[in-house]
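Tip: read the tokens left to right.
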């Protein structure tokens, strides 16, 4: 039961990490800056500060790309009501939303699937454009290329301008790592019309070497613009991912450790039972070998007894595993509670353990000397 549960949790953990395979977390430093609205009134004032900070950071040695947005992958907190034009899918009218600027996509490591990234030409007064993820296209225009399709923010009757999709990026989790990736919109920071949430930005810096080496340069750049501002959540993207999957990782490791301990105890138990059986059968084995029994036949008889124990254990274990899988179903992601691979792996582990635990007793049985065994009795 423990082996099956551990197998299910390990496969589930692998599915969570696999969902982030499109996110290149290495050599990326991220931090936040929150501006007080009393001091930086309006979106334009906040945007000017973030651009000035970007210019200061661009002089940092070893920097490959720098960008910022209202959030970063795995920590998105914003959703917007949208109305897709000519919608053919059944996606709900809500999508995750991020305003971005600079080389945000390159900094985070999002792969471009089609179209283009946002550029410095996407400014206020120009055509409203956006980049979306693959899940956005699947939700609203399944089977179609979402490029050049349009949507607008708000309900169908709103007077908001239509936004044209100019790029599609690979799916990465916007919120928790173990949530199904949903539709996500990336819009130019300068085209945002509302001040809500625009006074806090999350910067992403891609470096050539160790990302944490740029930490001192980040603090110095922020301090040079406004000594009163703290640097928030200064971490690598690898740390962000690690923190996001930490609860699932802890559960997986805990159950796996118990499963390994249970397997070792089971091996000791099987070894003890079979060894005791061989000792009890010493006279029988001696007589059989005295009348011509082959040593291999003796070893096979020992293994048959172990196989009987193993089959009993497998039969009860499979039944128990089906019951236990319902209990841990809420902890699983991307894998069925009755996953055949996990059940099979647990059965194979038990079978291999039984063979290993039987090797020494069977070797002893094969090397019993008939006449000494009879004299002992």
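Filled-in amino acids:
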């Amino acid at each position: 039961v423990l082996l099956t549960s551990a197998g299910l949790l390990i496969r589930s953990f692998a599915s969570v990490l696999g969902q982030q395979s499109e996110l290149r977390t290495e050599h990326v430093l991220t931090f936040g800056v929150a501006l007080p609205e009393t001091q930086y009134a309006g979106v334009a004032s906040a945007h000017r500060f973030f651009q000035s900070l970007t210019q200061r950071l661009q002089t940092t040695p070893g920097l490959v790309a720098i960008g910022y947005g209202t959030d970063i992958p795995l920590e998105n907190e914003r959703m917007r009501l949208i109305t897709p034009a000519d919608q053919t899918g059944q996606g709900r009218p809500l999508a995750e939303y991020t305003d971005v600027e600079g080389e945000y996509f390159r900094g985070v490591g999002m792969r471009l699937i089609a179209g283009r990234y946002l550029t410095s030409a996407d400014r206020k007064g120009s055509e409203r454009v956006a980049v979306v993820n693959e899940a956005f296209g699947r939700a609203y225009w399944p089977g179609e290329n979402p490029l050049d399709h349009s949507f607008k923010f708000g309900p169908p009757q709103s007077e908001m301008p239509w936004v044209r999709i100019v790029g599609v990026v690979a799916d990465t989790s916007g919120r928790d790592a173990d949530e199904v990736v949903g539709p996500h919109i990336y819009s130019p920071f300068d085209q945002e019309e509302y001040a809500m949430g625009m006074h806090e930005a999350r910067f992403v810096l891609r470096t050539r070497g160790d990302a944490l080496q740029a930490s001192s340069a980040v603090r110095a750049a922020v301090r040079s613009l406004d000594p009163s501002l703290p640097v928030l959540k200064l971490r690598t993207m690898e740390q962000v991912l690690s923190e996001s999957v930490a609860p699932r990782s802890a559960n997986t490791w805990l159950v796996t450790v118990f499963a390994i301990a249970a397997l070792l105890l089971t091996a000791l138990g099987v070894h003890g039972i079979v060894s005791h059986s061989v000792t009890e059968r010493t006279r029988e084995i001696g007589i059989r070998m005295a009348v011509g029994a082959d040593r291999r036949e003796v070893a096979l008889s020992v293994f048959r007894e172990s196989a009987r124990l193993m089959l009993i254990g497998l039969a009860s274990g499979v039944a128990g595993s089906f019951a236990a899988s319902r209990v841990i179903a809420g902890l699983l992601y991307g894998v069925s509670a009755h996953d055949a691979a996990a059940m099979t792996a647990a059965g194979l582990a038990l079978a291999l353990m039984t063979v290993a635990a039987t090797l020494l007793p069977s070797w002893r049985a094969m090397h019993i000397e008939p006449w000494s065994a009879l004299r002992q009795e």
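The chain has a mean pLDDT of 82. DSSP finds ten helices and eleven strands in the chain.
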